[in-house]
Every structure is written in C-alpha cells, then in structure tokens.
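Sample intake sheet
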Amino acid sequence: MTTSLTREARQANFLNAKLSRHVKVQTRTVSLELIADLWRTGKLISYNKWLQRLQQEKKWKNNGHKKALEYLASLLGTDGCVQGFLICGIEIVLTNLEHKKRTEPKLDKLWSEMIEWLLDKQNKGAQFIILDGQNRLAFAIVPFLKSDLKANLKIISQDANGNEFEEELKGVTFDSLYDTENDCMSDLQHEILNTEVILQSVVAGDIRAIRDQIISLNESEEMTINEKRSTEFTGVSLAINTTASHPTVVQLFKKLPKIFTGEKYHLEKKGDIRFLAEFLYYQRNGSCGSESTLNSMYHVKDDDINNQIDFNNELFLWVAKNLPKTLYPELTSKEIFRHLFQSIARLCKKSGGENTGSLSFNIKSLKQIKKPEIFLTKLIKKLIKVHASDDNFEPRYLIDERTGEFILDEDGDKQQLPRRHKDHKTHSFFAYHTASGAYDMDQREKLFTKHYNEVLEECKKSGVIRTNNNARNISTVQLMQAQAEHESDILDRWETKNLISVGDTELHHLLSVDKNGTNDQDNLVLTKKKLNRLQSNN
C-alpha cells in the first residue's frame, strides 16, 4: 500500500531533500603536457574490455591523418578549454568488481580474472583508466608532441615595424619549433604544452551510472546499440569483450575486413563483439538473436552461461590460432564464416539448434582434433564448394529479342548467362545463408550434413580427428579378456610370460591412443607396467 503525501508534506519534503548522485566527478583544468605524460608513462591506461570504444586508428589516420589534424587545429586554435577527457581511478573499478564477485558467485572465475588483470596493471604503475578521449590522445596529441605527426598551426607574428599578422605554418612537427639559436624550448612550444584541457576524474560511483555518463558523452558521435551493449558492466559483457580483445582473436577479425563491414559489423563499431555475442546466443537458442534478446542475454545469470562462455572463448581462440593463412582470402561471406563455428559447435554438441540430420560421430573436446589446420581446411573448402554450387541457382539463358527463342552455342546447347546473386533457388543451401534466424541456421545444417559427414569420415580415417576420447579408460572386462588371452603368452617382445604371477602389469595399445588407436582386443596386449610406460606413444 502506498501513501500519498499532501501538497504541504511534499513541499516540506522537497525543501529538505537533496539530489541523488551515483557518480562523484572532480573537474579541473590541466595542461596538455600533463594529460599526455599520464598516457605516455602508463599511469593512464585504456581498458578495452569495458567502457571504451576500440581504438579507431584507421579512422584517425585516413586521408593524411585528416581527423587528427582537424582536432589539433581546434585544440590549439582555442584559448581556453575544449573537449575534455574523462578518467576513472582503478580502485573504483576494483571495488565494483569485488562487489560483483560477492553478489554474482556463479561468475566468480570471470570477476577474479578481471581483478587480477587490473591489479597487475596497478602494480606496474597504472592509476587511472581513460573512459573518454582515448583516440584523441593516441592518434593526435601524443604523436604530435613526439613529432611523429605534422600539424598545421596558425600563429601571430610581427613584421619589422612591430605590426602583428596571422600566418599558417603547414606541416610542422613539435621538434621543429625548437629554439636552436638559444638551445632551448621556444615560447611557442611552451604555449602548446600549457594548452588547457578539461580533465574529469571519477572519484566515486556505481559502475552502471558511470557507464550511462559514457554513453551521454558519446551522443555527439552516436554509439550503436552494440557499442552501448558492450559497455554493460555484466559478466557476459566482460567475457565477450575479453575474448574479443585477445591478440590472437583481434588478428583473426582484422584479416577478414571484407566480411566485417556495415553499420552492425564494422570492426570500429565493435562488429567482432557483436559476432561473438551472436554466437553465444546461438549456443543458447539456435539463432543469432535480435537487439532486444541480445540485450537480455547480457544480464543472464543462469547455470548454463558459464559453460557457454567458456566454450565461446575456447572455440574462437582455437580457430584464430589454427586457421591457415591461405584460407583468409577465400572467406568472403560472413554467414559461411558463421557456419564454420556452427559446424564445430555441432560436432562438440554445443549448438543450440535443432540440427536436423545426424552426424557420423561427435567429440567431447577440441583436443580430439589432432590436426586442426587440416580439419579447418577441409571443412571450409567443403562449405565454400557447396555454397557456390550450381545446384543453388536457377540458370538463365540468352534469348533472341526478335524471335523470343533461345540462342544456341556451337554444340547446339542453350547459351547460359553469368550467374547472379538473386538467381538463387528459394530453399537452397545458398538461400539459407542470406539470413541467420533459427530456421535458416537449422536448414543450412540439414543440407550440409551429408557433406559434413564426408569431411568427418575422411578426417577420422586419416587420424586428423580422434574419436575414441576415452581410449585410455580400459574397462575391467577388457582387462580380464586380455589376461585370459595372454595368460600363456611367451612373446619376448612384450615380456608377457607369467605376467599374471608378477602382478605389476597393465594393458598396452599396439597403436597408440594419440595415433587413433582403439580399445579393440586386437589392439591391446598385456605387458609389464615399466615397459608400457617406456613405449610412450610409439
């Protein structure tokens, strides 16, 4: 039951009230030199796993560093503060992480990893995390002060009569302004270093409230829904960002620029993070999800999410590490790339789809794929081949405009026109790669099953994949059978004579488990434990 206040009571309440503030920020002006030194010395660091956009290096360096030069012109052409910088003390983030660790124990491993990472940075001298202004520092201010970037400066000079006039210095470095005559920094250099900028320091606050501030700050350069989602301070967000920021995974996505384009998937808009999030959602639901369902997933705390996050991380690192360089040029379709992960997840029984059509076998661990590069090559080439097959398309033929009849070639066959994208058949393998809903993803798996089984059987036969993951776990029955068979065996090679009486025995694989050996009786022999261990995987 709610109690309504009288007008007088409400007025009295307002008079005694104060604003609820979830973030405490100290604002001051500092010199350009100070903010640059904080960055250069490592006291101010970027924390790309949270709150910060990716370094937009390409954007700031394109067209002769146009964006960087425009910013420097604005910064150095203004007497007073311009666009400021927002930083946050590492201790604040650590406090929030410790709280998360206590209140969300199911994600304890993740929170602990984040704490460990920040503590390591702190021990190396880091004091602050930059929340807004990273690109301005990294690609404009610091390069200019290091003389790695030439800028255009407007200055006031005096003629011989003492009259002031404005002139522009084009393509100058900071070092070129040095007073060589007196061997000291020039007044112009000092003026540049003393340029005032706004520095806002978060000294207390709730992480979610800080995150809202970041979004507000970036409204001038609109953040996508995906960018906003990736700044969520949740276990799922941090897990996905952690995987995406791994150097090996970063390189994987950078090598596929043709795939990751457009508003949703451009890498500078965190398209890699979106792709990872969609695959995590696929594990849970069998599709890539919508904006709203992806938003919801970022806040789940169920029992499945940890295992799904772990597999997401393991799979993307595994592919990034083992994908042959020769295959990068062939991967020109985002959905084929997605299907690659789909197929591996299906093999490991980690997919969330219906998976109509059964595989020849499944594996429990990626470690069973003994030759990853060969497996990935065979799988990708098969995917590309089936995707590009003529079976996916309706043929088009040349027609004589006057007669309306087909034009024939020298052999009397109808002359076929080049195939177009829009000529694909409605229910073809190609068609189901034009969308990523649950039905489309299930159907592409169904149509690919036969081809996938061909790859799997070939890989199994050649030892690329080991299917007997538990080959070393020999049952009691298998041991008894081997003992009975070899009770009177006198083969000197294995020293099996009277082994039963010795007691120190174990079963030996004639073809090692590592080489795809099985637990079939014809592959097992009883021998002394010592000799078995000496054999290793030979």
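Comment: The two ends are 78 Å apart (CA to CA). The first strand starts at residue 23 and ends at 31.
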